[in-house]
Amino acid sequence: MRKKSIFFLLLLSWTVSASPKNYGSLGSEVDFLDFGRVIAAPFSYSVSSSFHEEYGAFNLFDSDQKTYWYSSADLKPEWIIVDFGAKRLINAVEVVVPIFRGKRAAEEYEIQILYQENWKTIFKNSKVELVNLHTLPPIDASIIRLYFPKKEDRSIVIGEFKVLLNGAALNSIPARFTGYQYPVPGGLIPDKDIQLPGAPREYRNGIHKGLDIYYKREKIGPPRRLVFDDSLVSPADGTIIRADLDYSPMTLSEFQKYSALAQKNGVTFVEKDFGGRQVWIDHGNGVMSSFNHLSSIKSGIKVGAKVKSGEEIGKVGNSGLSGEAKGNDENIHLHFELWVDGEYLGAGIAPSQMRKLLQFFFSKSDLRWPGVPTN
Ligand SMILES: [Zn+2]
Q: Would you indicate the residue range of the signal peptide (predicted)?
C-alpha cells in the first residue's frame, strides 16, 4: 500500500513539475514496475507512442528479445524514458534493435540524461546492431532517455532497453523468472486479489502464499470453472521432490478439529495443512513449484522422477479442503505456489504488480481473460 502511494506521489510530482517543453507530453504508456527483489530497482517508464497493446513498452523490460515495443509511426521523434524516481549509479546501457521488415528497426539513437532542464545527449549510436552495449562514463541519474532523432525513422522497434551498473541490469527481470507455462493448460490468472500470493489469510501465518486457479478458457465460449478431470502440468522441466502417493483424506471431524487448531494458534501445521494431496517440483536455479488439492497424481510421478515442461503431473481437485471431507465437489481449484530461493514468489509485491510479474513468469501461456466467465 505504501509503495503504491509513493508511486502515485512520484508520478504526480513528475507530471506537475515536469515542463512539457523538456519532456514532451507523457507517452501513450506510463507504468511502474516494482517486483520486490526480482528487479534491482523499481522504476517507471514511458514511451512517446505505442503501436499496439501487444507491442507495448512493457515488453522492453521482460528480458525477452523477441517481444517488442513498436512505435506508432507518428511524424515526430520517438523516445523511451526510464525513471527510477531517485538517483542511480549507471555506467552502461544495452539496447536491442531487431531486423524488422527487412531492415534494422532503428537507424540511429541517442542516450540522454536530464541536465538541469534540458535533455543532454551523452552518447550517439549511428551504427545500430542487434545488441548494442554502450559503456558510459559513470553517472548518477534518476532519469535516462533513449531518443530517436530522425523523424523519418518511422515505426521503430526495440526489443530491450537495459540500464546497467557494472554489468548488472537495474531494470530487467532475471531469466529464471520467465519462460514458464501455466500449470493449468488454458488456465486463467485469478481475477480476485485475495487469490494471489501475498493476500491475507487467517491461517498460514496470515499470508496466502500461492495462486488459486479456478477458471480455464474453452476453445469456444466463455471460460469455465475447473472440474475433477482437468489436467495439471509441470510449468518447466524439473525433478519431483515431493509426491503424496500415500495421502489419506481428513474426515469431516478431523478437518474441523485441525481448522479450529490452526485458527487458534495462528499457524498451519506441516501435517494436515489443508494443502491436501501435493506435488512439488524443483526447476533448478532456485525455482520450485508446488501443486495443492490434487484429486490424483499421474502414474510415474514420484520423488526423483524427471518431468518435462508441459508434462501432466495429476488432476485438479479439492483435497485438504472441506469439500473433500464432506465428499462433495465444492471449491475445486488448484492452489499453486512458486518458491524462489526458499521464499514464496510474491512476498512484498502488491497485487497489481504481481499480475504483471505473473505475465512475465508464465510467458509461454496466455493468461488474459477472454470474456465474462460462466457461473
Ligand atoms: Zn490457495
A: 1-18
CA 289 to centroid of ligand 1, rounded, Å: 14
Strand partners, 139: 90
C-alpha cell at 136: 558510459
Residue 249 CA to ligand 1 center (angstroms) comes to: 18
Q: What percent of the chain has pLDDT over 90?
A: 61
| Model confidence pLDDT, tens digit, residues 228-242 | 989 999 999 999 999
- Expressed as residue numbers, the domain containing 271 is 193-361
138 torsion bin: left (phi>0), alpha (psi -120 to 50), beta (else): beta
Q: Residue 372: inside a domain, yes or no?
A: no
Read off the pLDDT of residues 327-350 as tens digits, 9 standing for 90 and up. Answer: 999 999 999 999 999 999 999 899
Q: Quick one: how far is CA 29 from the chain centroid?
A: 18
In a domain, 182, yes or no: no
Q: Could you give the CA distance from residue 294 to residue 247 in angstroms, rounded to a whole number?
A: 10
Say whether both 108 and 24 belong to one domain. Answer: yes
Q: Is 1 exposed, middle or buried (0-12, 13-18, 19+ CB in 10 A)?
A: exposed
User: In this structure, are 139 and 220 located in the same domain?
Assistant: no
- 184-222 burial string, b = 16+ CB within 10 Å, else e? bebbbbbeeeebbbbbeeebbeeebbbbbbbbbbeeeee
Distance, CA 323 to ligand 1 centroid (Å)? 14
Please list the alpha-helical segments (H only) found in 198-250: none
| CATH code, 338 | 2.70.70.10
Asked if 215 and 169 sit in the same domain, the reply is: no
Adjacency order of strands within the sheet including 312-315: 231-233, 312-315, 296-297
Residue 374 is assigned to a structural domain of this protein: no
Tell me, in angstroms, the distance from the centre of ligand 1 to residue 337's CA: 8
d(CA 255, CA 330): 15
Q: Ligand 1: distance of its center to the CA of 207 in Å?
A: 10
